[in-house]
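FW: tagging you since you asked about this chain on Friday. Here's the raw sequence from the shared folder, copied in full. Didn't touch anything.
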Amino acid sequence: VYHTPWPAYALAWANRVEPRMRLAVGSFCESEQNAIHVIELNEESGRLEKVAGVKQALPPTKLMWKPTDRPSAMGETARDGNLLASCGAGVELFQLADGQLQSTAKLPPPKTNPPVTSMDWSPIKETK
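HL: got it, structure written out here
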């Protein structure tokens, strides 16, 4: 069991063999203090543990891991399910590396500033 320190809203399971269980969880707080946590199963203890996190102003409305292990436009380092997309104020792409979620690309919100409420990532053509 993993207990978030805030109400959880957006969830995304990574579809990977290794690590066996990886989950991204996004908060839903009315204040501008939201977050995304990456949770993995610790095989030794049998517990779900936070391995990385990042703060965001607005709640992420959808989270999605890179759908396949094929190389992406970002190169070989983007394999293994380490890319996470988030939408909210805009669409942002994170790479999980060395226990940190690092922003690698950001698509700003539309000029009218409504939140981006959903997205999808094609497993066939990942650049779309």
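FW: The radius of gyration is 14 Å.
HL: agreed, and The mean pLDDT is 84.
FW: great, closing this out.
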